[in-house]
Design a protein that fits this description.
Bound molecules: pyridoxal-5'-phosphate
Structural class: alpha/beta
Shape: globular
Number of helices: 16
Number of strands: 11
Order of helices and strands: HHHHHHEHHEHEHEHEEHEHHEEHEEH
Largest sheet: 7 strands, mixed
Radius of gyration: 24 Å
């Protein structure tokens, strides 16, 4: 390029890009190697207070040092998902093949809202989503698209549900001119379902929380009674959301039972499978999501349990035609026939106008390593939670929230002499101390008033030995904290 602006000439210089790219990939590969080495001195996170971090980054921006040497500081200041002692929130460490596709996506920057602005990425996305529909066991004609996160996917699916399963037209006339519409969902569902309902203008009466059993699964036998009650109040239930699984404890609702209920009562069946729908990829764990093939729509996050960098979410419709109803301007949705649709015009179906090329990250994984890598990953990570639970059961002083079904495991340290309040307080302080030390990363959750330490095994490099070290750390912190408490 030969522009008047030297800055622009420099910034677009292909050789500069090549040099910087090689240098950055080297840094990231070194980081991956170190993380995998299991060196005990390597922290998962180097916790800094927000203000401290802000000041540091202001200094880096203004500093005199070379323009390129902030990458190391970026790596240092980030949490390290590739470290085997990362057991915290549900994101998985990204596979190099997927991360490289992400770089390509960022560089090519195809907007995908219209077909012309992303031909390859549009075709690839369809291939990926149809492979997912097939893994779920859905019939042909099942398809969908990818979207920016489970939160947006759930909102989109519920908008489709209301469009398809209500007599009025809230989309055009507004929700206030309609009878109260209601979504049934488990008491333990992710907060984004409630948010979606409220965004849809249904208010807090728009969500009916079905109580859960002792394993935090929806008590589906209560559904008929609840349906009767809402109808008596002149409300219009239109959808049931099954959790596969819940976020807090990783509990899978009985999807077949919800499907039976929805079929019998002409309700839309949506599965929030953001975390666990991927169980469909494993022969060993498939039973967890039996019935998913009967759902009208399913959301699945590739960034949670499929080693894909965020955000990458599939929204699958059993009948892909339904996807065109969501944002259609027509009062009654008229197209019945897939042939009249333009599957490749994604902005007709998605919230996004400019849409990120996320499908290529998943395609890159499949093309490089084959589909079976997802099964290997699920079996490894879900299996580890089972081993960890066994270890806890054979160690005195630990309680589990419930037996883990997937890679989420919630436990706490308890002592018969502690009150419930003290148990909650001690576990909370333990989690805080672990965050500050940075050797491990775990989170916490409160279910039905009890505070648990929450681990998600999303790094396939994590071994039972790593978890055992964590339990010892928890024990020693508990001793220290309860002594301080007495003093
Ligand atoms: C993580 C999660 C979500 C939200 O998905 P995002 O991709 O973070 O927007 C929704 N539902 C469940 C069950 C989840 O675990």
């Amino acid at each position: 390029m030969n522009l008047d602006s030297h800055a622009l000439n420099d910034a677009f210089d292909p050789e500069g890009f090549r040099r910087q790219g090689i240098d950055l990939i080297n840094k990231l590969a070194d980081h991956l190697k170190a993380a995998q080495s299991g060196r005990p001195d390597l922290k998962v996170t180097d916790y800094q207070a927000p203000e401290e971090s802000l000041n540091e980054w202001k200094k880096i921006l203004e500093g005199d040092e070379g323009r390129d040497d902030w990458w190391e500081q970026l790596i240092q200041g980030s949490i390290h998902l590739h470290n085997p002692k990362y057991m915290g929130h549900q994101l998985s460490p990204s596979l190099p093949a997927a991360a490289l596709a992400g770089l390509a996506a960022d560089f090519l920057n195809n907007g995908m809202g219209v077909y012309e602005m992303g031909q390859a990425a549009t075709a690839i996305e369809r291939i990926v989503v149809e492979a997912v529909a097939k893994a779920f066991g859905m019939p042909s004609g099942a398809s969908g698209f990818m979207t920016a996160g489970g939160t947006l996917g759930n909102l989109t699916a519920l908008l489709t549900a209301r469009r398809k399963h209500s007599s009025g037209d809230a989309w055009n006339d507004g929700a206030r001119n309609q009878p109260q519409h209601v979504v049934f969902v488990s008491d333990q569902a992710h907060y984004c379902v409630e948010r979606a309902v409220k965004i849809m203008g249904l208010g807090k009466s728009g969500i009916l929380r079905v109580p859960v059993d002792q394993n935090f699964k929806m008590q589906t036998q209560l559904l008929p009674e609840l349906l009767e009650q809402t109808k008596k109040q002149n409300m219009v239930p239109f959808a049931v959301v099954g959790s596969a699984c819940t976020t807090s404890t990783g509990s899978f609702d009985n999807l077949n039972s919800i499907a039976d209920f929805c079929e019998a009562n002409d309700l839309w069946f949506h599965v929030d499978g953001a975390h666990g729908a991927s169980a469909a990829f494993s022969k060993k764990y498939r039973a967890l999501v039996d019935g998913i093939e009967r759902a009208n729509s399913v959301v699945m996050d590739f960034h949670k349990t499929m080693m894909t960098p965020a955000l990458a979410t599939a929204l699958v419709y059993r009948n892909h035609n339904d996807a065109y109803a969501t944002f259609s301007q027509q009062a009654r949705y008229l197209w019945d026939n897939a042939e009249t649709e333009e599957w490749y015009e994604l902005s007709k179906q998605t919230f996004e106008c400019t849409k990120y090329m996320m499908g290529i990250k998943v395609f890159s994984i499949i093309r490089s390593h084959g589909f079976s890598i997802f099964e290997d990953y699920i079996d490894q990570c879900f299996g580890l939670a089972k081993s960890a639970s066994k270890l806890l059961r054979s160690t005195s002083g630990f309680e589990l929230a419930c037996e883990p079904e997937c890679n989420i495991l919630c436990f706490r340290i308890a002592d018969p002499s502690w009150t419930e309040e003290k148990t909650n307080e001690i576990n909370s302080q333990i989690r805080e101390a672990i965050l500050q030390e940075g050797q491990f990363y775990i989170v916490q959750t409160v279910v039905q008033g009890k505070r648990f330490l929450r681990t998600t095994f999303s790094n396939p490099a994590t071994q039972v030995d790593d978890f055992e070290l964590l339990t010892r750390k928890v024990q020693s912190l508990a001793t220290r904290i309860s002594k301080l408490d007495q003093a």
